[in-house]
Design brief:
Layout lengths: L1 E6 L2 H18 L4 E4 L6 H12 L9 E4 L1 E3 L10 H8 L11 E2 L8 H14 L5 E4 L21 E4 L2 H7 L12 E4 L2 H6 L2 E7 L4 H9 L17 E6 L2
Parallel strand pairs: 1-10, 2-3, 2-6, 3-5, 6-9, 9-10
Antiparallel strand pairs: 4-8, 7-8
The structure holds fructose -6-phosphate.
């Protein structure tokens, strides 16, 4: 079931989103958080950092698993998702670095990395709260439109619109990696709670398709309609 909330500003979205995550952490201090990168969650992470700095949040027992990573980028590459997480959250809170997991984009055996990632999530007991952004093509993680929902963590060729959208983070579009490793729809759907966020007019059409359009692998986020506990927050700006 989706609880769909529309707010006016990104600031409001971030406050509400951070509150939901903070409540999860307070209710279960050793929670497993599924985290996302990209521009949408940045303000949420800033709010969480502020709560931590104010002594209102403790990450010491938290474990995190990230959705995805570019293939070919090392942890210290400024556009890698590991680097993003360090700079936007992990370096600023008291999370144990050994308990932060991001797929290894440099794995020589990508398939082995993918199955190890799924085993890791399973061993952790699954994800308590999964934070998601949404791509303009409806992707969640890097689960791109296709003819089916792929359950397991897997390598993906990025959709041209995703490469285009992510080019803003790189010097040129040629530098955007063509492939990534992404958590599959299975681990996402097994998360006990999901928070999907989207902001700005460009995301309006796709978020509405995801929330109330037909459930189809052409809009991967639409599968969330079949999850029992999803909060979607869309901000108009
Ligand atoms: C990031 C991720 C992606 C993004 C999506 C939206 O870890 O999994 O699905 O959430 O591409 O990106 P932004 O927020 O930059 O519009």
């Amino acid at each position: 079931m989706i609880h769909y909330q529309v707010v006016d500003t990104y600031e409001e979205l971030c406050r509400l989103g951070a509150d939901l995550i903070a409540t999860q952490i307070k209710n279960k201090p050793n929670a497993v958080l599924g985290l996302a990168t990209g521009s949408s969650p940045v303000g949420i992470y800033q709010n969480l950092i502020a709560l931590y700095q104010a002594g209102k949040l403790d990450f010491s027992k938290i474990t995190s698993v990230n959705l995805d990573e570019y293939v070919g980028l090392s942890a210290d590459h400024p556009q890698s998702y590991r680097y993003f997480m360090q700079k936007n959250l992990f370096d600023h809170v008291n999370i144990d670095p050994a308990k932060t997991f991001v797929p290894n984009g440099l794995a020589t055996d990508v398939d082995a990395e993918c199955s190890a990632y799924d085993r890791r999530i399973e061993t952790l007991g699954g994800i308590d709260l999964q934070l998601l952004g949404i791509g303009l093509d409806g992707h969640i993680g890097f689960n791109e439109p296709g003819d089916r929902f792929i359950e397991e963590t897997h390598p993906v060729l990025l959709h041209p619109s995703t490469i285009q959208a992510n080019a803003r983070f790189f010097e040129s579009i040629e530098e955007v990696p063509r492939s990534a490793i992404t958590m599959g729809i299975g681990s996402i759907m097994r998360a006990r709670k999901i928070l999907l966020i989207a902001n700005g007019p460009a995301k309006k059409e796709i978020i509405e398709k995801a929330v109330s359009g037909p459930v189809t692998p052409l809009v991967q986020a639409s599968i969330l309609q079949q999850h029992p506990d999803v909060t979607v927050i869309y901000s108009k700006l």
